[in-house]
Specification:
Length: 90
């Protein structure tokens, strides 16, 4: 009678006289897409993109962002990471 539904869900619906929930459909996301998303999430976890952007914006807002070669390099590195993530997602 549960027709593949979790037994606890079926019993709860019957005891509480609720409508049986519809079965969830499988995700239409392909394995390749899931692998790309996993790769991107892994890169985000390893990178310091969010931290770098936050520091840049904090310094820029208070007017203390020194645009030396090191800062330019960090901005370019962050930009390259974001561009790679964008291209991978698209």
């Amino acid at each position: 009678m549960a027709d593949g539904m979790a037994l606890a869900t079926f019993i709860r619906a019957k005891v509480l006289n609720e409508r049986l929930p519809c079965r969830k459909r499988r995700s239409s996301t392909s394995v390749t897409d899931k692998q790309a998303i996993a790769q991107i999430l892994g890169l985000l976890g390893q990178s310091r993109i969010a931290n770098n952007l936050n520091q840049f914006t904090d310094h820029a807002n208070v007017g203390s962002l020194a645009m030396d070669n090191e800062t330019r390099g960090q901005i370019e590195e962050t930009y390259d990471h974001i561009l790679f993530l964008r291209q991978t997602l698209l």
